[in-house]
Design brief:
The chain contains 7 helices and 10 strands. By secondary structure, the chain is an alpha/beta fold. The protein has a domain of 153 residues: Rossmann fold (3-Layer(aba) Sandwich). The structure holds adenosine-5'-diphosphate and magnesium ion.
Length: 262
């Protein structure tokens, strides 16, 4: 079966800035992801996680190697891939519902339909009642829920998330992790979303993922891929599961050489 997403021997060099040296951000990265799989990229700052997402999204081109979605090579951004960023990237001058409607409107759907879609996803992420609020009137957690709704309202087959919860307080973060999984579930006859999730939190990667790709920096390489065999659905009880602790410990052991001294 063709994987949903295939990363084949991808190397990415950034051109030197003002006489400096070229940066090899990724070196010979390869792995594939099946439909409906939740895969996290985990590693220290600078290991190329964001670069890999930008390549999959089609905003950057590989220097060597290929990336394909459903067997078709990625050459540009497309509606089959949706992005969620850490800093929400909402339009500050649009209300919450206008932010969520933006994608469907751009696809040329009638306004009424877009509004229905937006209300459905706003409800799904738990922020109904705030449709007419503007981003600055919302908490960080609510803004991130809005950003999530805006991405899934476009119904991308592949969802790319770059540290979406990094700026969220710890208590809200746990709740939002569960919400992300729920939003990505199969619904309305559509399959579960395929997700590539960037984080530098070990707990978060273990809680969310089916598999975790461990990366090391300079140049960014994949040095291990770990299967997470925790029961679904993931709930608060998951965080007490012996396997949860065993995995977080094992991953910490292999990443701690990259921890920065205080
Ligand atoms: N646009 C760019 N131009 C030059 N170098 C870049 C650019 N983006 C990232 N880099 C470099 O590539 C490496 C990987 O960066 P990045 O993908 O942001 O890592 P991560 O998201 O894991 O922190 C870093 O050394 C970074 O400085
Ligand atoms: Mg990054």
């Amino acid at each position: 079966m063709t994987p949903k997403l295939e990363i084949s021997a991808v190397t990415k060099d950034y051109a030197p800035l003002r006489g400096g040296l070229a940066v090899r951000a990724l070196d010979n990265v390869a792995f594939s992801v099946s439909e409906g799989e939740f895969v996290s990229l985990l590693g220290p700052s600078g290991c190329g996680k964001s670069t890999l997402l930008m390549l999959i999204a089609g905003f950057e081109r590989t220097s060597r190697g290929h990336i394909s979605v459903d067997g078709r090579e990625v050459t540009a951004p497309g509606a089959d891939r949706g992005l969620v960023f850490q800093d929400y990237a909402l339009f500050p001058w649009k209300s919450l519902i206008e932010n969520v409607m933006y994608g469907p409107l751009k696809r040329g759907l009638p306004r009424r339909t877009c509004e229905e879609i937006a209300r459905r996803y706003i409800d799904l992420v738990g922020i109904s009642g705030f449709e007419n609020h503007y981003p600055h009137q919302l908490s960080g957690g609510m803004r991130q829920r809005c950003a999530l709704a805006r991405s899934v309202a476009n119904d991308p087959a592949v969802l790319l998330m770059d540290e979406p919860l990094a700026a969220i307080d710890a208590l809200t973060r746990n709740t939002l992790q569960e919400e992300i999984l729920r939003v990505c579930d199969a619904r309305d006859g559509r399959p579960r979303k395929t997700v590539i999730y960037v984080t530098h939190s070990i707990d978060e990667a273990v809680f969310l993922s089916d598999r975790i790709v461990l990366m090391s920096p300079r140049p960014g390489r994949v040095f291990d891929i770990i299967d997470v065999d925790l029961p679904s659905p993931r709930t608060d009880a998951t965080r007490q599961h012996p396997e949860f602790h065993a995995l977080t410990k094992r991953i910490w052991e292999s990443l701690k050489i990259y921890a920065k001294p205080e």
